[in-house]
Amino acid sequence: MGGKVIQSARPGSKTFWLVLLVFVLLAILPLLYLFFGSFFPEGSFSLEAWRKILATETERVQLLHSAILGGLATLFALLLGGGTAWLTERTDLPMARALGPMALLPLLFPPIVVAMSFADLSTATGLPVVALLLGVSHAPFAAALTARGLRSIDGRLYESTLLARGRLRAELFLLRQCLADILAGALLVLVFVLSNHGVPEFFSVKKKSWFVYSEAVFLRWSAPGKPGSLRAAEAVASSAPLLLLIGLALLICLRARRKGTLVTVASDFRPLPLRALGRGKLPALLFALILPLLGIVMPLWRMLLWSAGSTANHGTSMQTAIESFRRVVTELSGDLGYTLGMAALAGGLVVLVALPLAWEAARRKPWIEALSLIPLAVPGVLLGVALVRLWNDPHLPLARLYDTPALLVAGYGTRFLPLGVLALANAARRLPASFDEAARLSGRGPVLRWLKIQGPLLLPTAVSVFILGYILSLRELDLAVILPPGNDMVPRRLANIVHFGNEDVGGALAVLLALGAALPILMRILLTGKAGRADL
Amino acid sequence: MRRGPLVLLGTVTLFLGTACSHKAESDVVLYCATDQHTAEKIVRLFEKETGIPVKARYDTEANKTVGLVTALMEEAKNPRADVFWNNEIIHTIRLGKAGILKPYDWPGAKGIEARWKDPKGRFAGFAARARVLIVNTEKLPDPKARPKSIWDLIDPRFKGKGVMARPLTGTTLTHVAALFQTLGEKEARRFLDGLKKNEVALAKSNGAVMRMVSAKEGPAFGLTDTDDFNVALRKGFPVIAVYPDQEGMGTFVIPNTVALIKGSPNPKNGKKLADFLCSARVEALLARSGSAQIPLHKGAEVPKEVRPLSSFKAATWDFAKAAEIMDKILPELRERFGI
């Protein structure tokens, strides 16, 4: 297998440094400014804000809750996502070609919509329910990365092990080979679960409390005080335990992904042989249906019922549903279009900025991956406030852009950049060195080599990164609330509509938002005939 | 490297493309924490009548006012908003204390009693909501056996039957701070202690209280706001609103507030919008809206589905003192209620 790293194809160093500078200015410096500011509340040096971190029993319990919930949700995600990927990639499961991409569909609905749909059907509550629903919502990460890991293994290696050492050893060999990808998927799930406070709070309504630490962080911002005050410093400092927890998880993820680069696609690659399920076909099929059923069918069904008036005492009717969709189309189509447009621009920005960073990260600057993770590791509120500080400075020319959509695109792009850098860096590492070497020998310059060789090879991953950035931007609420141009974003409006008892319109809006989220996936399928389920 | 310009060109195009919707100089910027669906109609009316475009930015209840209050604090050095319309009063007082609000004489609110306005003119209260008990008449069919006071939440007769929002944000937090201010610490803590003993369910919001009481199973009554109660009524659930403590301290009433932002970009048009918002006409529109707000202007026309302020005993409480108390009790409330 050709795992040799290409050292010769030099990327544009000026572009790289410029993009890095923009990234540092946009995300790292504002966050550092907030961080250092927390040591100087009321204008003088003090550790007062930091002394209060985890000072109460409640906060310590919440952090423990976060860790337990994160672990359990990740287990569920691995079981459902990883299990489905294994079935669709390794076995003769019926409809495997359709079920594989379907495991990614839970990303289309925000986790809180999945939670509200479940609450419509069941009175169950508490830790297992919260963990299951968060696991389902984020299982696509586990599914995509497990599938990618399995597809990266040369079938001949597996068969050799099978012949030489038997079934059990061969399966263990498989597990070892794709462990890095499985772990990477699991840790991405953990990161997103740890920063989610809406779902645990939602299920704490029914007496049984299961508050997590991100809820405490969020509440600190509900009355943060003026910038520079002790209260504002406390709000910043309170993010530290979560940041450490997430940072630790992300670093493990990085290490795991780096190890995964030993497995490389070569031109004479042969996929893994499929295992016959025999009598297990039906149970396996039912298992593979769990994720799409819980993650997409259930929320879609409940939201459609909401749109038909199921939350009112009058019961449902087709007329109410039509009226709900009509109201969304006539009153909110502008917001919907704006939201999809912003998400598309954010996805594009993620690709544009991630490409040069990832290229360098894969070649000679692996520290870029760790640096790029910071915006995802901090709570969304913190990143939003940091961006406000930077962009609202009247002395900077950037201030002109403060209340324009550019700020929102920058915010989302920064937030989801880590996923782009990780995925593209991983893809860049897998490019066989021989391709570029051959092109160099033919006398092609770096631009042509990029356009003819590296670019096309990275394109599927770039498209997947774009889709991921697009979909995740449609789920992000914290930045939409903090940043002024987020005012017209549908997730923010959806939260308000539902809160104020307009579930019928909210249901219709959630369905249309999910359809909008599915647009690039549908376009990709139409254009290429592939859903691109494992290009991450 | 020559692919650099392509990437740069793309990035710059993206930014320029999205940056082209900068607001015009005449636009007035409104930060609005009240229900967007209701507020948008009022804003559109103002735009239509004055020709002044309003760039409105709304908050989400689900985010516990993190958005606009935080934004106003963060933007203090370079204010972007001209007017703040808050759906409650305590955060407005906080902003006033932080020096973010600009004093004004509030000609639009002349018909509103002085007690609803800041003595220093930093804000005016208008269109209020009352803190009522929403009671499911099917779960508690006997009118005589229905709760009449917030103390009934901790009365053993109603053990396991009541619900209220966790008093950590929103009007429920304001309500608890007001209880500390009017009843004193000892009595207020007796109330909080009693909630746990009497197995009062704790919901995440007033909307959730309304939904739990309206449902076929679950709590029979709960403490919520009149606008949430009206949602249940509109949806046809068998509920009534009990204005609590009519024989005692009275029902707590929490007004909307409007304030001007110090150093705002368009103070002239900001004042016009602020005057419009706290006018008797807008109060009447808010009373007729789905949120059924209570007008505070003297002699205001009140639709039949809204109880006028004169028809019930409202509790008297000091907003500024309650705001101070809230800062002190918040850590205790977080400990008590698990956050």
Could you explain the architecture of this structure?
The complex is a heterodimer of chains A (536) and B (339). By secondary structure, chain A is mostly helical. Chain A has helices at 13-37, 48-51, 57-90, 96-102, 111-121, 127-152, 155-194, 198-202, 213-220, 230-237, 240-259, 281-307, 318-363, 367-372, 374-377, 380-391, 405-430, 433-441, 446-475, 478-482, 490-499, 503-528. Chain A is globular. Chain B has 2 domains: 24-128 and 255-309, 3-Layer(aba) Sandwich (D-Maltodextrin-Binding Protein, domain 2); 129-252 and 324-336, D-Maltodextrin-Binding Protein, domain 2. In chain B, strands 1, 2, 3, 4, 5, 6, 7, 8, 9 and 10 form a 10-stranded mixed beta sheet that branches. Chain B is globular, with a radius of gyration of 22 Å. With 339 residues, chain B is α/β, with parallel strands linked by helices. At the A-B interface, helix 1, helix 3, helix 8, helix 9 and helix 13 of A face helix 1, strand 2, helix 3, strand 7 and helix 7 of B.
